[in-house]
């Protein structure tokens, strides 16, 4: 199975275009004003306008109000919503759009129960739990906390980079990976070299896995 790649936290159209041309399946825009990667609606529109067809645009929110989400949806061509806060299942599904629910994983996090609660999500996105932060921290978590069989597609994130993503994909077999800090040269500035190395690493490990007997 193809491991999908999402790169998150773009602030500049030129970086998003490079990601798309390198083969990223989705790009993420952060609508959370406490993030150093936060974009305005005008910035988001410019980034989206730079993209070629068939690259999904994901809008990330952290405990935003209904009005904030609706305003973004009304003004930007968004394909998927990503909720990174304490949004309820009812709130997430109320926009009639595909959505991802992000979960910050620590010992005791019951991913099976969360997958059942957000059963209509397109995927459960697992990120590291870091006290006082909602994501984008560049920290990994203990991947053995992920149960082998989840009822939702797993999107692995949290501290991934070009060096650890091979091990991550081989161990966890996620449906997709999501990266932000790990492909940056500065907050919100994506490095073409790091994005290229990250995408090449995912494609290489995927090829290796598909060569294994029984695959
Ligand atoms: O990118 C951010 O600034 C951010 C802020 C608040 C919530 C989530 C955020 N980003 C998401 O966090 C994960 C992990 O990011 P990283 O690779 O460890 O930097 C990823 O899903 C980002 O989309």
UniProtKB/TrEMBL annotation:
Keyword set, alphabetical order: Amino-acid biosynthesis, Aromatic amino acid biosynthesis, Isomerase, Tryptophan biosynthesis
Catalysed reaction, written as an equation: N-(5-phospho-beta-D-ribosyl)anthranilate = 1-(2-carboxyphenylamino)-1-deoxy-D-ribulose 5-phosphate
Pathway info: Amino-acid biosynthesis; L-tryptophan biosynthesis; L-tryptophan from chorismate: step 3/5
Protein name from the UniProt record: N-(5'-phosphoribosyl)anthranilate isomerase
UniProt family annotation: Belongs to the TrpF family.
Domain N-(5'phosphoribosyl) anthranilate isomerase (PRAI): 5-200
InterPro entries attached to this UniProt entry: Aldolase_TIM, PRAI_dom, RibuloseP-bd_barrel, TrpF_fam
Organism of derivation: Vogesella oryzagri
GO molecular function: phosphoribosylanthranilate isomerase activity
UniProt entry tagged with the keyword Amino-acid biosynthesis: yes
Record-linked CDD domains: PRAI
EC number per UniProt: 5.3.1.24
Keyword Isomerase: yes
């Amino acid at each position: 199975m193809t491991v999908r790649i999402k790169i998150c936290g773009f602030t500049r159209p030129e970086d998003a275009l490079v990601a798309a041309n390198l083969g990223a399946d989705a790009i993420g825009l952060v609508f959370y004003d406490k993030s150093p990667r936060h974009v305005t609606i005008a910035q988001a529109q410019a980034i989206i306008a730079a993209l070629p067809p068939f690259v999904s645009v994901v809008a990330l929110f952290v405990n935003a109000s209904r009005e904030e989400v609706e305003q973004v949806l009304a003004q930007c061509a968004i394909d998927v919503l990503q909720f990174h806060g304490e949004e309820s299942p009812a709130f997430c599904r109320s926009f009639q759009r595909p959505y991802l629910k992000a979960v910050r994983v620590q010992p005791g996090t019951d991913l099976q129960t969360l997958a059942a609660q957000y059963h209509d999500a397109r995927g459960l996105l697992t990120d590291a739990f870091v006290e006082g932060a909602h994501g984008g921290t560049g920290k990994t978590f203990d991947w053995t906390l992920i149960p082998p069989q989840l009822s939702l597609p797993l999107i692995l994130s949290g501290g991934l980079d070009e060096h650890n993503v091979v091990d991550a994909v081989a161990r966890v077999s996620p449906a997709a990976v999501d990266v932000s800090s790990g492909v940056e040269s500065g907050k919100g500035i994506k490095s073409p070299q790091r994005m290229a190395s990250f995408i090449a690493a995912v494609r290489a490990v995927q090829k290796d896995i598909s060569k294994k007997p029984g695959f």
